[in-house]
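Thread title: Can someone regenerate the structure for this chain?

I was given the following input by a collaborator and told the matching structure tokens would be attached. They weren't. Posting the sequence so someone can regenerate them.
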Amino acid sequence: MTVDDACDTCDTGDDPVVRRVDAVSDDVFTAMQHRDRRYTLYFLLEHDGTSVDELADVVTGWTHVGEYGMVGRADWTRVYTALLHQHLPMMESAGLLVFDREGGVIDRTEWSPSLVRIVRLAHNAETNVHAG
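Best answer:
Regenerated them for you:
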């Protein structure tokens, strides 16, 4: 797949390089460097919002699937704490979500079509790597 294929829904206008850079910022790619943040984005593809507790359940489960049978409380607590103090604030700064710390609620922001496509491509690639 080429960059043009991945951005076929981008408004390329007169200057395609500038438009593509504006469509998906470096902060998005930085956010996607960590597995727990990618799993958060994958979950938010299908859900407009969630609670930190539910997201910690999902990310913990996806992280440990196939590694061993039982996920312990310590695993969940590690993921929950990292989401709360590191990952969610970073993703909020990148404009990917809104994080209500008081209510423990996460809402997805409005994602551009090119961002949705990039997250789907990453999800498909990561799922195929682990499935094979």
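The longest helix spans residues 73-93.
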